[in-house]
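User: Can you predict the 3D structure of Amine oxidase? Sequence below.
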Amino acid sequence: MTAEASRTLILCISLLYLVVDGDPVHDDTMTQKESLNNPFNPASRLKREIKDDSTCTKCPQSEKQCSPSPSCGEKGIFDMLDPDEMRTVYSALVSKGIVDPWGTSFKNTYIHRMALLPPEKAKALDYLDNGGSHPGRFAEVHVIRGNSVNPDLMEYKVGPVCGDSMNVTQLYKDGELSFNSQVLSSSEYFTHLGMMRSFTDTIDLIIQESFGNHEFRFRTLSPQGFTASERNTRYVLVLRIQATSSGYDINHMPLSFTIYSPGTDVSIWKIHRIFYLNQGPFDTAEDLLEAYTKGELRKFSLPRNYKSTAWNATFPQRDGTGWARKGANIAPPRTYQPSGSRINCVGNRITWMGWEFSVGFSQVRGPSVHDVRFKGERILWENSLNEVSLVYSSDASGDANNILMDSLFGLGDQIKPFVPGVDCPEYAHTINLYRWIKSVNFASTVGAGCVFEADMQGPLWRRGDSYSAGLRNHVLVVRIPLTAGNYDYTIDFRFYMDGKMQTIAEASGYLQAAFWDDDNPNRRKNNDGFDGFGYKVKDFTQGAIHDHAFGFKVDMDIGGTKNSFQKIAWKADTVGKAFRSQGRRNTNPPYFENEHTRFLKYVTLKNEIGLRKNLDNPHFWVVVNDAKKNKWGVPRGYRIQMMATGANILPSDHIANKALAFTKYHCAVTRQRDTERYLSNPYDVNQLAEPVGSLDNYLDNEPITNQDIVTWITPSLNHLPTSEDIPMTASVSTGFWLKPHNYFDNLAVMDVPKYLKSSISGLNENPPDFEPCQDDTKPARVNVEL
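Assistant: Sure. Here are the predicted structure tokens for Amine oxidase:
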């Protein structure tokens, strides 16, 4: 290296030191910028020297936006429906008289949501692997049929979307999906709003004395009914927090009621089951007012001017009550790409370091990956989020029985552009996602997803011996943040260089809390700030205990579709039992000095089954191909390894257990059926007593040995909120791994250049070298288009 090059390198490294660690002679009374501009500061002199003499080149810049998808006729079978295709589907349904070309009133028939309907697996495999005919691209369209003689909901298969004509097929029988089980529509809500105004006018005295001049609104709760014939929409009073759309969820007040509103005949709709400070139920507003004015009720009064207190505890602003922590105003370290991106991203097809797969997205179900291959071999046909469910418990009239299935509200219905530098690094590639906006009968494009290579800043493997060796761990991350009401979920699909895959589900956002009543007669007299349903976390707020269960459909194809599921028990018992479990000798070999040992017991499951993790009885779960073996004669497979996970402890007769059957298992194994598309029906949360869809329906004892099988994996979180969840819940995560299990003959990353220093001549190696460069990466683009 020349002296000039050495000097340039030293200057570049010195500049990096300044950016990462800050000014070594930083004066706390001076801003960083002022300090660097101070002519008496040595760092300032170095800054001027770099400006004058440095020859650092700029780092290569990669295109931030994934390349556009091909035209309709050239799209891949897993490419998301784009806005043009959605509009084509809409036009076809209008022309066939299936949907109205106007309005989304609950008395109209209109498209609620749409997304790509995954192709039939056998046809898709024949097309991809054998050159068979194209299986066609079809839309799954959810329609609210409000103007039917007997209003109901319907799902349609529409397509092929690129054909000269499109066929429309009903996926359910007429009336099978109840009209009453739909999500609350804006037109229904506005009708409810008129009823609420009359209600609040009647009880204005209570409103003024209890809640003063504070702004408030009514928030819906779930479910809206337990059977298909009923529709009871529950509301709770919440403080309206300006500049937030769901900050009210941590500001519930002690007034709730139910609106009975089945069907489309508004003349029979009514408000009933009214509670005030847990007292009730009252049948009418007049009944509540009479009891209140007669002094028959405990009363509550919100402090005057409480609004500013609620704002300060709700809006995620910087805490200005003390000094900013030292170093907070210095930019933290950043990762950059000195040689450009190693990712190839065309539409939603991604390739990186031997991996290749398609990213999918459903407005109802959320993100997915399809046709995942490593080094040319397909390992995974589908890994898709299907459902997120929550069951709440509290001692507050509006929140005591809150049960949610977020697919009802659309896991992809509220997608927003990702937050640059927070959700995704500045150098990430943007993935466009698409959704149908029912209010305007139009489709939108949102830059809500991203894909990037992450430096995990640690070893994938290492060894310190008579030689030194290791490989730095880099991971490909596909990240899609989802907003679902008060919560934000971030879904990661991660791909490692040694063939591992990891799926992570992360939750953040606002709590859906409950009202805290200091004088609650159901609580102990000493008022410790907690009870059997959680802790007091704010003046009038309890963090209601709840769980988050994330249901995934995971269809692995290990060496083809003929797979089996092994349950490998990790046992400890006598030596004799260890050998007998393998069908071997009955006597103990003499080389065992102890009577006990640990051993493995292999069981290949014969029929469909639901499984739960039990730390007292540990097992490995492995999908294997008995006919495909590695070099050592062992069946090739992939292991399912759960991350820390919660558990459904609801009693067997709980009303939610049928619709939320997937939460009873950490993993269920079924035979692959195209008709068994999802582990839940989103509308069942509003008819829990008689669900249409349930994972239990798939567990009908079909054989699963040497068959095309599907695993339904449910990682979950038991959330006990504490005061640290205010104003925002810091991200908490769960998920699962898919790990090679004798799939390869050895560690599958040894074909990647590594660090190796040995005394043996010729056996030394370094990862690819790079020249220091100036990173001018700008934040990834986040676009929203109509």
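Residues 371 and 381 are 5 Å apart (CA to CA). The first strand starts at residue 57 and ends at 58.
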